[in-house]
Design brief:
The protein has helices spanning 46-52, 63-76, 100-117, 134-146, 159-169, 181-188, 211-217, 252-256, 260-266, 284-296, 311-320, 330-338, 361-371, 462-470, 494-497, and strands spanning 14-16, 86-90, 95-98, 125-129, 149-152, 173-177, 196-200, 209-210, 232-237, 247-251, 274-277, 300-305, 325-328, 351-355, 375-380, 386-389, 403-404, 410-413, 427-431, 443-444, 449-455, 484-487, 500-509, 512-519. With 520 residues, the protein is an alpha/beta fold. The strands form five sheets. Strands 3-2-12-11-13-14-15-16-17 form a nine-stranded mixed sheet, sandwiched between helices. Strands 5-4-6-7-8 form a five-stranded parallel sheet. Bound molecules: adenosine-5'-triphosphate (ATP). Its EC number is 6.2.1.2. It comes from Cyprinus carpio carpio.
């Protein structure tokens, strides 16, 4: 089945998640030049993969305890390969290699920092902006351990983006490096929910706790939180192609177990594999491919910390390290095939993948000609795990991103949600009735309601007014902008109301806003 995707809307029986993607109709099958076909390691063929896919979701699940600690034990008992769990390198040749045991050791310390030093409790939200440094992975695992909800952001965010994310999420803790700390400081006063700021740097910045120093103070003794499978685990902001970025919440099981589809089937990883995924640490793709999918399979997560994408560095890295599996964006492959690949021999590389945008058939063809390897495409969204993809053993059709993933019933449907005949263009839908797949996001976290005050803020007592209001409302943004937005929690008392000209209650759901005057 070839999936053609057209527009975005919602309907009853399926959760429609397609975006305005025009998928080119492919004209011919890829010509085989040099061919290095590797048989799937984790499944026989597409049909049997779908048939045998069966994941039982337990009531309680925590990836750190139920997956990472299991690999740690296997490692200790000599039941896993000697590959590191995390293999990090940078442009200066510095390397960090952590076994699952070392990952456990450092992340337990960081978990103690979050809980003991920062007083963060289960369910509290942690906003993380770090580039591809090993500590990014530690924060991920430490949040799992403490049951705190991780909200990753990309280093490209502006002060306005950061402010919006912090206000919308109500994050209590921010973690970043010295490049972004000053930017966060410019908006911190507008984000009263923040109680802790952690800095990854050799330099001290006033008001920021030093992550490395704090980790040196605490023990590595930490008991992982016994989280429910459906409990909030992470919130990713979508990239905002079709509107404002949406706060997409995932549970411990939706990614922690759901991404088995990616790791076992699409990436076809085992504990013998070294997997390099180049995506930025702020997007859901990093949770997919740099955390959950490879570690579910016990594979080694490889990272090259490049300040910017450089084709020579990528090609050199692929030829100097035993990387078996490589995933990058179609744009990156386009750049790579323009370089002189013949200078390099990829000794271990056997499986290449791409996702995030359509790949041009010419790029696939060129890559195959130069390396002998196919590029397997994947399609998914922040809200999902892999929705569709080309899986090993499948014929690769230029212009098609493959077939539905196991775990999802994916169909091409019309506006009413009726399945369209083969070859007809429509929307892409995932069936959510009668059973909603557990590997879907939980909800869009919305700013449920807030009031907009139109008061005489120029009056001398505006500070007192804000203080007074703060005792009755959840959040008051700093007085830098009119009208001021305030999270509504209760009726406003007379002492306050006398100073306010107008109060509007605004309900904001993603994509729409309702407004009602509730005062004067
Ligand atoms: N293989 C692919 N081919 C074409 N497009 C793809 C592919 N993989 C992913 N995409 C695009 O990436 C999108 C998923 O990205 P993401 O979840 O960040 O949200 P977004 O759709 O870009 O933004 P928003 O939901 O905020 O509008 C898909 O909807 C699709 O547009």
């Amino acid at each position: 089945m070839t999936l053609y995707v057209r527009r975005k809307s919602f309907f009853n029986h399926c959760l429609k998640i397609s975006k305005k993607n025009e998928v080119h109709e492919g004209g011919r099958w890829l010509q085989m030049c040099r061919s290095k076909t590797s048989a799937p390691k984790n499944f026989c063929d597409y049909e049997s993969m779908r048939r045998t896919y069966n994941i039982r979701v337990p009531q309680r699940f925590n990836f750190a305890k139920d997956v990472l600690e299991q690999w740690e034990t296997k490692e200790k008992n000599g039941q896993r390969s000697s590959l590191p769990a995390l293999w990090w390198v940078n442009d200066s040749g510095v390397e960090v290699r952590w076994s699952f045991e070392e990952l456990g050791f450092h992340s337990r310390r960081l978990a103690n920092v979050l809980h003991q030093e920062c007083s963060l409790e289960r369910g509290d939200r942690v906003f993380l902006i770090l580039p591809r440094v090993p500590e990014w992975w530690l924060v991920n695992v430490a949040c799992l351990r403490t049951g705190t909800v991780l909200i990753p952001g990309t280093s490209q965010l502006t002060a306005r983006d950061i402010c919006h994310r912090l206000q919308a999420s109500g994050a209590k803790c921010v973690i970043t490096d010295e490049t972004l700390a000053p930017l966060l400081d410019t908006v911190a006063s507008d984000c009263p929910s923040i109680s802790t700021k952690l800095l990854l740097s050799h330099r001290a910045i006033h008001g920021w706790g030093n992550l490395t120093e704090l980790m040196g103070k605490v023990s590595d003794d930490h008991v992982c939180m016994d989280t429910r499978s459906d409990e909030a685990m992470t919130i990713f902001f979508t990239s905002g192609t079709t509107g404002s970025p949406k706060m997409t919440q995932h549970s411990h099981c939706s990614y922690g177990l759901g991404l088995t589809v990616n790791g076992r089937y699409w990436l076809d990883l085992t504990e013998q594999d070294v997997f390099w995924n180049t995506s930025d640490t702020g997007w859901a793709k990093s949770a997919w491919s740099s955390v959950f999918a490879p570690w579910i399979q016990g594979a080694c997560v490889f990272i090259h910390h490049m300040p910017r994408f450089d084709t020579s560095t990528v090609l050199k890295t692929l030829s100097s390290y035993p990387i078996t599996t490589f995933c990058t964006a179609p744009t990156a492959y386009r750049m790579l095939v323009q370089d002189d690949i013949s200078r390099f021999t990829f000794k271990a590389l056997e499986h290449c993948l791409c996702a995030g945008e359509p790949i041009n058939p010419e790029v696939m063809w060129k890559w195959k000609e130069l390396t002998g390897l196919d590029i397997y495409e994947g399609y998914g969204q922040t809200e999902t795990v892999l929705i569709a993809g080309t899986f090993k053993g499948m014929k690769i059709k230029p212009g098609s991103f493959g077939k539905a993933s196991p775990g999802y019933d994916v169909q091409v449907v019309d506006e009413d949600g009726s399945v369209l005949p083969r070859g007809q263009e429509g929307d892409l839908g995932i069936r959510v009735k009668p059973d909603r797949p557990f590997s879907l996001f939980t909800e869009y976290t919305v700013v449920k309601a807030f009031v907009v005050l139109t008061a005489d803020y120029k009056s001398r007592d505006h500070k007192e007014l804000i203080q007074e209001l703060q005792t009755h409302v959840k959040t008051v943004t700093a007085p830098y902008k009119y009208p001021r937005k305030i999270e509504f929690v209760d009726h406003l008392p007379k002492t306050v109301s006398g100073k306010i000209r107008r109060v509007e209650l605004r309900k904001k759901e993603w994509g729409q806003q309702t407004s009602k005057q509730i005062w004067k």
